[in-house]
Write a structure and sequence with these properties.
With 249 residues, the protein is of the alpha/beta class. It has two domains: 173 residues, P-loop containing nucleotide triphosphate hydrolases (Rossmann fold, 3-Layer(aba) Sandwich); 65 residues, no CATH class. Helices cover 34% and strands 23% of the residues. It has eight helices and nine strands. The strands form two sheets. The protein has a six-stranded mixed sheet with strand order 5-6-7-3-8-9, sandwiched between helices. A three-stranded antiparallel sheet has the order 2-1-4, covered by helices on one side. Strand 1 and strand 2 form a beta hairpin. Bound molecules: adenosine-5'-triphosphate and magnesium ion (MG). The site of magnesium ion has 3 residues, from helix 1.
């Protein structure tokens, strides 16, 4: 948790091959098309923000990348066998302690060194002093850290997070992003969805804009601002709103 907050300025190592790549993903739920030919890739250390209105397809995209749902079309290639998935809802047992949860999930993940994994995750997430607390008694910020710790147990090269900061107060949110920023600096590719577009600007090397299942934009936050011209000059949030408006959303 020691990484300083900072606006990311360097893109993920652009010479490295993607650790995650999916092309032309299609997902249908009955008549509803949740994803229409959506492509995405991420390189080691890259932070990719997926933004877009409610129902845009963000969760569907992330859960397909995580292997939770199957696409109806397209290809998921170069996805590492071990991918970290942090759903929006807590994925731990509230009647177990923090340490018991981590031990249980380490075993389920098939970790060879369960005690080592437990120590590493308590250290990395700063949850050492809460190791023996029941998960149900944790604050929202610590719950989210436990959720993320479970996603990171297998040391995945890619971490997928669905609205990781949604339930957090500004200080907890800042701490969470310091942590995620540290993961990215250490080489983990991080793909996350958020409704907080300032977060996407601050903690996204690249941004993917989805609306009604369609990928409307992929590029850096500055490129998105340039795409809307004068109307988006004020700040990233204004540029994002204007971008959606110009494309009829
Ligand atoms: N299991 C499902 N069954 C039927 N329709 C679904 C299912 N999951 C998602 N959808 C539909 O697919 C579309 C995309 O949903 P998704 O949850 O991916 O959007 P989202 O961008 O994550 O939205 P939000 O910002 O509200 O979280 C929506 O129209 C949603 O109603
Ligand atoms: Mg969602």
């Amino acid at each position: 948790m020691a990484q300083p907050s900072a606006t990311v300025s360097e893109p993920g190592r652009s010479d490295a091959a993607p650790v995650l790549e999916a092309r032309d993903l299609v997902k249908r739920f009955g008549d509803r098309v949740a994803l229409r030919n959506v492509s995405i890739s991420a390189r080691p250390g890259e932070l990719v923000a997926v933004i877009g209105p409610n129902g845009a397809g963000k969760t569907t995209l992330l859960s397909i990348l995580a292997g939770i749902q199957r696409p109806d079309g397209g290809e998921v290639g170069h996805v590492p066998a071990r991918i970290g998935w942090v759903p929006q809802q807590p994925s731990f047992y509230s009647k177990l302690t923090v340490a018991e949860n981590l031990r249980l999930f380490a075993r389920l993940e098939g970790c060879a060194d369960v005690a080592g994994a437990l120590d590493r995750m308590l250290e990395q997430t700063g949850l050492h002093d809460r190791a023996d607390s029941l998960a149900s008694t944790l604050s929202g910020g610590n719950r989210q850290r436990l959720n993320i710790a479970i996603g990171l147990l297998a040391e995945p090269p890619v971490l997928l997070l669905d609205e990781p900061s949604a339930a957090l107060d500004p200080r907890q949110r800042e701490r969470l992003w310091d942590f995620i920023f540290g993961l990215s600096a250490g080489g983990t590719a991080v793909v996350y969805s958020t409704h907080n577009v300032q977060e996407a600007d601050r903690y996204g090397h690249n941004v993917i804009v989805l609306a009604d299942g369609e990928r409307l934009f992929a590029g850096s936050p500055r490129e998105l601002e340039r795409a809307v011209g004068e109307a988006g000059a004020r700040d990233f949030e204004a540029a994002f709103v204007e971008f959606l408006r110009q494309r009829g959303h």
